[in-house]
Amino acid sequence: MPTTRARRRTGAGASAQAMADTIRATERRKQHRTALWALPLLVIPTAVTAGYLAASTTNRQAGIAVTLVIAVLALRRIYRTKGSTWATGAAGERRTRRILAPLVWCGLGRWAVLHDRQIPRSRANLDHLVLGRCGPVYIDTKTWKAKNAKVHLRRGQLWYGNHPQQKTLDPVVWEASRAAEVLGHPVLPVVAVHYAAVPA
């Protein structure tokens, strides 16, 4: 039987979204396996018993309502998703793409922006590569959404909350250097931060 193959995503955040989709598919398979044994052994007997008790002490409608509420809550618990940092990252890259789009629209051919490009001989990818008269610029997107963490400088180093970000910045510099090797021109590395406030 022929199967239809999912079309590969392209554009900003494509690699991160593909990873998020893979993780979500694995999570969904685990949830289905859990549901196969939990529904007949735990959820249905519990919901029916509680509904019967509610119906016998009040009325039939209350019993049905209790049964349905317990079943729905159990299904929500089984199929809840924790979310994925990959999906968050992909959304951030799409946000950066929208910010960069006017460079191409209004640049009259002086700017080009490439998104989600594979680094040769590496599993890493470039989030955004901006090509223009100022020279190539590599932009790496970070989506930092912690409510109580702030971006700040401490002793000349970038921190996010209580965590130094040197291990985050080093790969960005390395990725820019690999792009420079391919282009034969120095590439300026830039980090685009979404949601977290960045001090001047």
Account of the protein in words:
The protein has a four-stranded mixed β-sheet with strand order 1-2-3-7. Strands 4-5-6 form a three-stranded antiparallel β-sheet, with no helix packed on it. Residues 1-7 have low confidence and may be disordered. The chain has helices spanning 14-57, 60-78, 85-106, 166-183; strands spanning 112-118, 125-131, 137-143, 151-154, 157-160, 163-164, 188-194. It is elongated and about 80 Å long. Helices cover 52% and strands 19% of the residues. The chain has 200 residues and is of the alpha+beta class.
What is this structure, in a nutshell?
The protein has helices at residues 14-57, 60-78, 85-106, 166-183; strands spanning 112-118, 125-131, 137-143, 151-154, 157-160, 163-164, 188-194.
How are the secondary structure elements laid out?
Elements (H helix, E strand, L loop, with lengths): L13 H44 L2 H19 L6 H22 L5 E7 L6 E7 L5 E7 L7 E4 L2 E4 L2 E2 L1 H18 L4 E7 L6
Parallel strand pairs: 3-7
Antiparallel strand pairs: 1-2, 2-3, 4-5, 5-6
* Order of SSEs: HHHEEEEEEHE
- Separation, N- and C-terminal Cα atoms: 59 Å
| Coarse shape | elongated
Oligomeric state, counting identical vs distinct chains: single chain
SS field, number of helical segments: 4
Largest sheet: 4 strands, mixed
Helix content: 40-55%
Low-confidence stretches: 1-7
Strand count = 7
The mean pLDDT is 82
Percent range for β-strand residues: 15-25%
Based on helices, strands and strand pairing, what is the structural class? alpha+beta
Strand line-up of the largest beta sheet: 1-2-3-7
Radius of gyration: 25 Å
